[in-house]
Amino acid sequence: MMHCFDMLYSPTLLETQYQSNELQRETQRDAYEFRKLGEVKVLGASLSIFCCRIEWALKHKGITYEYIEEDLRNKSTLLLKSNPVHKKIPVLLHGDKPVAESLIILEYIDETWRENPLMPDDPSEKAMVRFWAKYVDEKCVISAWTASRTKGHEQEKAIESTQESLKLLNKLIEGKTFFGGETMGFLDLVVGSLPNWIKFIEEFVGIKLFDTKELSFLHEWAQRFTEIPIIKESIPMKEDLLNYFRAQQNAK
Amino acid sequence: METHSKKMAEVKLFRTWSSRFALRIVWALKLKDVQYDTIFEDLSNKSPLLLQYNPVHKKVPVLVHNGKSVAESLVILEYIEETWKQNPLLSEDPHERAAARFWAKFGDEKVLPSIWEAFNSEGKEQEEGIVKAKENLKYLEEELKGKKFFGGEHIGFADIALGWLAELENVFEEVASMKVIAEDEFPLLSEWKRTFADAPIIKENWPPRDKLVTKYQAFREANLLNKAPK
């Protein structure tokens, strides 16, 4: 916040306002230091492609947390109280304060615990990360999900949309070790669970979404990413997803 | 003089006269007193520059700063916030920032589609649509308790993201002959609408209402016609 410190040396009314604002902001910053000592809990589901993002972020920063597995057919009072609007996982609880929506939780984690940053410093690089994170959730995920639940023309459109969006991601990772550069970052965590999940959908529904040859950069990145120990621990694997959903099907 | 005009050309905003998403950017830039050039787009005939700056979505708004483009209005708002630190739109408190982002997202993903759905319906379908929209709006009403704006004492990120409710929503209600945000059911939201719509900067930048009414009348007629007959 260099601009605030600069202002402290010129005696004007504006300076007074900036001083009192800066004092307010300092008090807020002290409050976070204190709240960093609050307990961290994650309400999640082990096969969720969104929850793993949160666990990865916390592990990446070395934050201790309690993981609570939710039964989504019988949601806990804590979940319903913590996320009354959407009633969905993941939810992060820091002390007694909840944060919902995985991308928002990731930003919260990155802003609260500054070690091993997930976001780049530069605002325009950050904007790129946010843009693509939004794209992943609004295009890739929704298209693949739609392709898994529809038939006929609607399914064809969804398959095409998924393939197109994956091609863009493939182009984005070309020539890079991770989306974050040399080390993994925010976007790696966002895309991370997708390849396995998409391959699960392919096998479960019997459609073609992920062409390994066409998406060779993305495929190689996925293999690299999944080998990282903290990632491997929490990633929903294709086999686990298949086993779960096939069991669901047979139970009907 | 040369430096000043060079600085003026540094920031460009691609928009249309009516886009509620582009309006967010206008508000944010003006609230932070950032000088910028406007490029109005005709979406039926998109400029090569727009296609170059937003090849993925080919939409407005797009902000170009020092030659680098940013697309998606909420992403642009965050960029503006980080680049021009005067008159902050987001709190320093990570939890309050998360809340502002949450409500902005909720507005775009739930509130807007539900009101749009009711807008493009009539009769019983519209009634049901209004019920759904009100369920979403109840959360916003709750969030305003004890607050002048979603951002607290001052206009913040969430206010700007939800700002379309303060004027465009009135246009929707008029054109579709429906009442969604009634004073007795949503006293806080109704008050917020008035306060926000009348705030400095905000009130000077609304698109012309009569043009909006005409535009959305045409939209609604076309959408109703396109709906499969029952």
- Principal-axes geometry of chain B comes out as globular
Which consecutive residue ranges of chain A, at least 5 long each, have pLDDT under 50?
1-11
Mean pLDDT of chain B: 94
Residues in β-strands, percent of chain B: 5-15%
Largest sheet of chain B: 4 strands, mixed
General description of the model:
- The complex is a heterodimer of chains A (252) and B (230).
- By secondary structure, chain A is an alpha+beta fold.
- Chain A contains twelve helices and four strands.
- A four-stranded mixed β-sheet of chain A has the order 2-1-3-4, with helices on one face.
- In chain A, helix 3 (51-60) runs parallel beside helix 5 (102-112) and helix 9 (194-206) runs parallel beside helix 12 (238-251).
- Chain B has a four-stranded mixed β-sheet.
- In chain B, strand 3 and strand 4 (68-71) form a beta hairpin.
- The longest helix of chain B is centred in the middle third of the chain and has 26 residues, at 94-119.
- In chain B, helix 5 (94-119) packs antiparallel against helix 6.
- Chain A binds chain B through residues 1, 3, 25, 28-29, 31-32, 35, 84-85, 94, 97, 99-101, 104-105, 107-108, 111-112, 123-124, 126-127, 130-131, 134-135, 168, and chain B through 56, 65, 68, 70-72, 74-76, 78-79, 82-83, 85-86, 91-95, 97-98, 101-102, 105-106, 139.
In short:
The complex is a heterodimer of chains A (252) and B (230). By secondary structure, chain A is of the alpha+beta class.
What would the keywords be for this entry?
heterodimer; A: 252 residues; alpha+beta; 4-stranded mixed sheet; 62% helix; 7% strand; globular; disordered N terminus; B: 230 residues; 10 helices; 55% helix
Topology:
The complex is a heterodimer of chains A (about 250) and B (about 230).
Chain A: H1 2-7, H2 13-35, E1 40-44, H3 51-60, E2 66-69, H4 77-82, E3 91-94, E4 97-100, H5 102-112, H6 123-149, H7 152-173, H8 186-191, H9 194-206, H10 216-227, H11 229-234, H12 238-251
Helix pairs in contact in A: 3-5, 6-7, 6-9, 7-10, 9-12
Chain B: H1 2-9, E1 11-15, H2 20-31, E2 37-40, H3 48-53, E3 62-65, E4 68-71, H4 73-83, H5 94-119, H6 123-143, H7 157-162, H8 168-175, H9 187-197, H10 209-226
Parallel strand pairs in B: 1-2
Antiparallel strand pairs in B: 1-3, 3-4
Helix pairs in contact in B: 2-4, 5-6, 8-10
